[in-house]
Amino acid sequence: MKTLFRLVTGFAVLLLLAAPVFATGADEEAGAPARTSTTDESPTGPYEPPISVSYHAFHQPAQDFLEGDSFEDNLWTRAYSDELGVELSFPWSAQSGDAYRQRLNIAIATGQLADIFSVSPIIFGQLVEDGRLAPLDDAWEYMSDDGRAIMEWSPVTRIAGTRDGVLYGIAEARGPEGKNLWVRQDWLDALGLDAPQSVAEFIEVARAFTFDDPDGNGQDDTIGFGISGELDDALQTFFSGWGGYPISNFWVESGGQLEYGAIQPGMREALRALRAMFEEGTVDPEFGVKGEGELYDDIAAGRVGMYAGYFWSPLWPLNALKGEDPESDWVPVYFPSPSGEPAPEPLDLTPGEFWVARADFPYPEVLVKMMNLFLEYQDEQPEYFNQIDANGEVLELFHLAPVQYNTWRNNVDAAAAIQRAIPVGEILPEHGVAPASMFGAEQAMLYATGADTTATPWAYHKVFADGGSMNLVRWRMDNDGYLENAFFGPPGDAWLRHGQAINDLVEEWYVKFVTGEESIDSDWDAYIDAFSNIGGAEVTAEVNAWFENQ
Amino acid sequence: MAQLFNRRPASRIKASPARIAFSIANHIVLILGAALCLVPMIHILAVSLSSPGPVAAQRVGLWPIGFTWSAYEWVVGNPDFLRAMGVSFLRIGLAVPMSLFFTVITAYPLSKEKKYLRTRGAYVWFFFLTMLFSGGLIPSYMIVLATGLIDTIWALVIPALTWQVFNMILVLNFFRQLPKSLEEAAYVDGAGHWMVLFRVYLPLSKPVIATITLFTAVTHWNSWFDGMIYMNFPENQPLSTYIRNILQTLEDVRLTIQDVSLIEFLNNDTARAAQIFVAALPIILVYPFLQRYFAKGIILGSVKG
Description:
The structure holds 2 protein chains of 2 kinds. Chain A has 2 domains: 37-175 and 352-384, Periplasmic binding protein-like II (D-Maltodextrin-Binding Protein, domain 2, 3-Layer(aba) Sandwich); 180-347 and 484-548, D-Maltodextrin-Binding Protein, domain 2 (3-Layer(aba) Sandwich), CATH 3.40.190.10. Helices cover 43% and strands 12% of the residues of chain A. Chain A has helices at residues 2-23, 75-84, 97-109, 121-129, 137-140, 145-153, 155-160, 185-191, 199-211, 236-240, 265-280, 292-300, 318-324, 366-380, 409-421, 438-448, 455-464, 469-478, 493-515, 524-548, and strands at residues 38-39, 47-48, 51-54, 57-58, 86-89, 93-94, 116-119, 162-163, 166-167, 180-184, 223-226, 251-254, 257-260, 304-309, 330-333, 345-347, 354-357, 386-388, 394-396, 482-484. Chain A has a 4-stranded mixed beta sheet with strand order 11-14-10-15. In chain A, strands 1-2 form a two-stranded antiparallel sheet. Chain B has 2 domains: 17-68, no CATH class; 78-297, MetI-like fold (Orthogonal Bundle), CATH 1.10.3720.10. The longest helix of chain B is centred in the first third of the chain and has 32 residues, at 17-48. By secondary structure, chain B is mainly alpha-helical. Chain B contains 18 helices and no strands. Chain B is globular, with a radius of gyration of 25 Å. Chains A and B meet through helix 1, strand 6, helix 3, helix 12 and helix 13 of A and helix 4, helix 7, helix 8, helix 14 and helix 15 of B.
């Protein structure tokens, strides 16, 4: 039996060793096929004869279609075919981000990459190193002026997509998410208070919302300032008011060196402020065991008076509360800071995703041409973005364009256009509402004219109209109200190894400090040591090595 | 065990306070355990039968608020859901009979003593090793690709035959505890191995067959990963993969897509709850009918008879 066991295990081990050999399929390394079609230099010039292009598809569930359309044949695929001479196909389609990552990893390992596809920064770096991506410098020359303007606003995206001076990936410009403080307006009115503009007022409002029965039900069931144990992203702006940045891989420059945001002295002061509120009871005593989902449930149930949200918060979760309680109303304000100025919103513009072309694909510029078509249609062809069907339901059709190139600025421009239209009482062409934003504009107008004051029109009005969250975003743009991450390179090896542990550590100590399990006064050094020991020192060295080369 | 209890007079069991205490504690623990399994399911059912408003406001517990069938009407009229359910039923219809057949004909020779099948140990080890090691995702994918199974229903059925080793061991052990004399009598009457297997062993093995039928059916009904990996297009994916896709968290998409319809869709708790419940229904319905075979059916290792 023993010999037999050895024999069989030996055989199994042999198979295991051999597995990687089988795993390197080589469909794509057969030598680059030559170009057989031509195209002109204009941004959306067609290919003659038409070319076929494959891509890895991410198709969201519950996609809307026009009658008779499908993922294979719809208005966007017909547009690519008619205008660009591009016949699109996809070898597979994923319906979730997780499925896309799994399928892409398989495609990479088995050598079955499509012609064009999108990848995360980490996979992007590996593919560039392995020489499996096409240089896009020549392709970039086809980019339209609109597209170039997007890249110019956010140079970080170009730097992140470049390796050794060669452009390999084109990323959409990421923008601010409008991380600000949302306050229950109807509670302020009930108690005769104003929205807080200083730290003292913020604490006072939190007290009133907690102890003065703002919902008037005679019960002590309200939370002044809603936070969760997950260190919500939106709370970053609260911390930055004091100069603390508990944000994944976020760095600030100090004396010619980069230092990690979550161990800044300002972080300590911000935690002291939260600790004081916890002791008073104006933040949820149970916050440490609650996740962001539970916090949102509390908000939707009307128990929370203030919380850190986003520009889109009226669309979720505030609309859920509005649907239940039509009297509820919210106002977005800047987080106050000890200096009296609005707290700057931390901004990480490093892209989360790149569009790339396979190394031996002969027409990499097709990526740029497809982006150009998307941008052109955005200005001229609203029916490619949203349509209303026979039942009055909105069909969101723009997801059917596989390659999009967009800018979050659309939302800011839309807000300005809607605010021009609202005093007139109807949306006219001269107000300049972009077709892609027309649905939101119409909803906001319904609320403004009083025709429909239910949750959805209210939510769009709260985002786009005067006094809405978009105005805060625009003010920050005009008044330098952002603080950018000083590090914008690709995540390094040390970060990939220790990043998760560092994020967990920061979150864990945030809860311990605020609940008083660790003392902010006497245990702060232990926190800094723990950060260094868990890999922080290594990451700091790596990031500063990158910084010296900039 | 049954004999052990019967020998004791009923009065003596009642007389012992320790025994009563044990019995009460035992019941409480078991009822709590059962509640732990049942309560989430009842909550899902209540959510699926409520109006969206109270659900979003987190007011729905174990009883529906604002009772409505609308989520179920939506599910029944949702072609994607029904198609995925069709794929799942087809998968079970193919996989369960095939798995049973191959499991039984593999277990039968391996249940024989070593003097009848000298390489028996080697075979058992060969199968057993597949429970410890797997080829990994990429090699498995390449085999399925090279054999042309990709994007066909067979990709969900044929590779899954290799998941049957544990069930095969169950059947093997069950066969071994059947009385030898039955088999010998059949041989004397002129039966061959096929006849013995199908006419003598199988009729006596209903408990274990019922058990592994349930195991196999549940495994196939629930497994989503192979549907995601081997099926290129959503129209070929089974129900479990479909459910998995709609259960994406808000977190997952927030960073890439900031559009309203998807956020609304992902927050449509009632529709999701209805789909989860309908998806679990077939298993809930089949379970009670097969469950009574369990105690006899699962015989592992040295417990024989």
